[in-house]
Design the sequence.
């Protein structure tokens, strides 16, 4: 059974590479497939780095991510995901507005969906994600000068927080783990995602 799983995972990695043709660069020059070329990201900029501003960013993240994940989980093409998000961008705006209202804050904000959202270079584990312009939903809170958070909405990879290299759902728990244990967990999550995608395409 173990050998079958290994073969399945290796086949999935090869298929994903052929399908999307995108790799991320490792610090030692190796390459590893995580984010495909055709992907839609979510980026949230906090007003500043004040604890309250960062907490509001996390609350907006949780609410928006939970809703959009439900929208895209059954989609198999970026065209379908793109159309759906364009049609429902006003709903995302409403989620942000309601989250801010519940927080008791009077924070201003903007919600944009663009094919040219600027992202800085990020190091995720030992892999480098180059700076550049990527298709994304960009939520800017206030002045947008605080630390940002981002993930990949489609294909659905928002269980990984590419901003700091931890699992979003286990952010606090991961902070207490040794580095090698965290990286091992991340690899297992990516392998599980690849197997899930494989099963969707062959069913």
Sequence:
């Amino acid at each position: 059974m173990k050998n079958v799983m290994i073969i399945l995972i290796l086949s999935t990695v090869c298929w994903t590479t052929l399908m999307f043709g995108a790799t991320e660069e490792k610090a030692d020059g190796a390459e590893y497939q995580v984010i495909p070329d055709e992907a839609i990201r979510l980026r949230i900029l906090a007003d500043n780095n004040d604890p309250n501003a960062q907490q509001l960013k996390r609350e907006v993240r949780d609410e928006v991510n939970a809703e959009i994940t439900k929208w895209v989980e059954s989609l198999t093409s970026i065209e379908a995901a793109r159309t759906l998000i364009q049609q429902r961008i006003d709903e995302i705006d409403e989620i942000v507005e309601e989250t801010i209202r519940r927080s008791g804050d009077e924070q201003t904000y903007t919600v944009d969906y663009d094919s040219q959202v600027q992202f800085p270079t990020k190091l995720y584990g030992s892999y480098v994600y180059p700076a550049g312009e990527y298709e994304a939903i960009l939520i800017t809170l206030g002045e947008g000068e605080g630390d940002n958070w981002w993930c990949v909405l489609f294909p659905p990879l928002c269980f990984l927080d590419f901003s700091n290299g931890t699992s979003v759902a286990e952010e606090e728990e991961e902070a207490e783990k040794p580095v090698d244990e965290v990286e091992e967990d991340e690899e297992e999550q990516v392998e599980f995602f690849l197997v899930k995608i494989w099963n969707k395409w062959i069913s």
The helical segments are 2-20, 51-72, 78-87, 89-103, 171-174, 179-202. The two ends are 20 Å apart (CA to CA).
